[in-house]
Amino acid sequence: MTFSPLLPIGMLVFILGTMALFAIVQFARAPKRPGSWHWLIRLGMVILLFGLALRPGLPTNLRPPTASGDVDVYFVVDTTSSMAAEDYGPAGEPRLVGVRADIADIASELAGARFSLITFDAETVQRLPLTTDTSALVSGANALNQEVTIYSSGSSISAPAGYLAERLAGDAEQYPDRTRVLFYLGDGEQTVAQAPESFEPVGTFVDEGAVLGYGTASGGRMRQFNGYDESDADRPYITWFGDGGMQEAVSRIDEVALESIAMQLGVDYLHRDAAAPVDAAIAGITVGDVSAEREPVVDTPEFYWIFAIGFGMLALTEIGALAVALRDLRRLEGGGHAA
Question: Is residue 289 part of a domain?
């Protein structure tokens, strides 16, 4: 089972937990009054909405390759709004499109290693703990989206540094004989006022890897994201107030910053483009003996739609109740006029 929550878990629990508590209190106040049972329906809708927001999935590749090798691969992905800039590849796609493709390609080449997926924007989150299940990794990567625009408060390229230092130190203590490979995938854009922290404490525990940079010097525009899947045509571009008034924001890659991170980690920096293979990023990395034959990476189907169906059915009862209430209100108004 994999999860790709639309919002950070803490935020989901706070928002939906508050809504659930409100529904419980309303029902408990007068459980026998007419229409009070609707609060139980609303409570059910909140629970289903929580399941929907978690975006659960089930890997279809039930026999992922396992390894007797000793390699742990950490993908650290920038999911700030700038990673939605449309300057990747000849078609001008969002940078995250390149990130997803590179993660899948690297995972396929290093099948048998253990993989972890970590993202950072307003907070750093481990999306997938160390696992040999490449299908779960690819599914998690395919589900990655930029942060919700209204929650964006600027980006720091070193946001995951503290988390990574603690995580890798713990893993190094627990598995001292394993090789740790780290891939940092981002655009190097620093928009907060503070200077970025150093990744040197992280580099202490990194044996191999690379910093992969996405974007162009000319830059690209970024569409807004509200946390739901929508077509690009339905989403306006992010704007900011510049010298000439409101204008569309443009994000540009900062390769100097990315090269600095690579130096601190002790790995190479590589600019990524749709036409370039990932061979240079994994050069010299060997996984070891794989105890199961390699299987093709299989995408993980999501079944949040099951919760969506349940939510929709309960929502229909609320719509029906509203229609009945409006009908009764019209009757009352009609009776009043007749008198």
Answer: no
Q: Provide the whole-model pTM.
A: 0.68
| Alpha-carbon distances, residue 280 vs 97, 106, 184, 252, 318 (angstroms) | 19, 11, 14, 24, 57
Number of structural domains (the chain) is: 2
Check whether residue 12 and residue 76 sit in a common domain.
no
- Residue-wise pLDDT tens digits, 121-153: 989 999 999 999 999 999 999 999 999 888 787
CATH of the domain at 243: 3.40.50.410
Residues 170 and 214 in one domain: yes
> What is the maximal distance between C-alpha atoms in the chain?
90
CB 215, CB 157: distance < 8 Å: no
The residue length of the chain stands at: 339
Query: 107 and 297 in contact (C-beta within 8 Å)?
Result: yes
| Interatomic CA distance for residues 258 and 161, integer angstroms | 14
- Estimate to the nearest angstrom the gap between the alpha carbon of 177 and the chain centroid: 31
